[in-house]
Amino acid sequence: MIDLYAWTSANGRRPIIMLEETGTPYNITAIDPHSEAKNTPQYRAISPGGKVPCLVDPDGPGGAPIHLMESSAILMYLGEKTGQFMGADAARRWDVLQWLAYLATNVSISFSALNVTREMADQCRTLLGEVNNHLANNDYFAGDYSIADMMVIGRFGDFRFDYIDLNDYPSLCRWRDRVMERAAVRKAMEMKIV
């Protein structure tokens, strides 16, 4: 059984969504990323960067245990392990991975910085415009529902920036509502992690 160390943040919700979507059994342990718990030698042994979330799979590649940090790496690992939500063929897989990388390195990071300072607000509005334009012609980021969508639904499904009106981005809102209708997403977003 997989052990997931996570918190109530958008980062922590991503692997929970994937585990729920795939029906993969898991245990969850709460790790507050703002506490000293992430700096203990025991936690650093499984998450060398002290990152939350972190996953430990005793039945990793070749049957050997594996531990991973970073939500995007965890999503890719679970996609590979289960054969789900990674694209139906090689071309779609690369589409999923390009959107996962774009959303992880642009959208996710920019909005994480916006939690601390409003200086990123214009950059975030630009990114919202870009994803809104893409979603105007696509139901999901990479054609079918995938780990790319899981990467940012935690952020947009629980949007908490009162100085940015998400309703100004109607295609993004339609995507958000579509993804939030999924039972696994709702469960992961509502789950108490304590």
How is the secondary structure organized here?
Elements: E1 2-6, H1 10-22, E2 26-30, H2 41-46, E3 54-57, E4 66-69, H3 71-82, H4 90-114, H5 121-135, H6 147-156, H7 170-180, H8 183-190
Parallel strand pairs: 1-2
Antiparallel strand pairs: 1-3, 3-4
Helix pairs in contact: 1-3, 1-6, 1-8, 4-5, 4-6, 5-7
Describe, in plain words, how this protein is organized in 3D.
The chain has 194 residues and is α+β, with helices and mostly antiparallel strands. It has 2 domains: 2-84, Glutaredoxin; 90-182, Up-down Bundle (Glutathione S-transferase Yfyf (Class Pi), Chain A, domain 2). It is built from 8 helices and 4 strands. Strands 2-1-3-4 form a 4-stranded mixed beta sheet, covered by helices on one side. Helix 1 crosses helix 8.
Question: Rounded to an integer, what's the Rg over CA atoms?
Answer: 16 Å
Second CATH tier, the architecture of the largest domain = Up-down Bundle
CATH topology of the largest domain: Glutathione S-transferase Yfyf (Class Pi), Chain A, domain 2
Beta content comes to 5-15%
Structural class call reads alpha+beta
Strand order of the largest sheet: 2-1-3-4
Termini separation comes to 20 Å
How many domain modules?
2
CATH C-level category of the largest domain: Mainly Alpha
Largest sheet: 4 strands, mixed
The shape is: globular
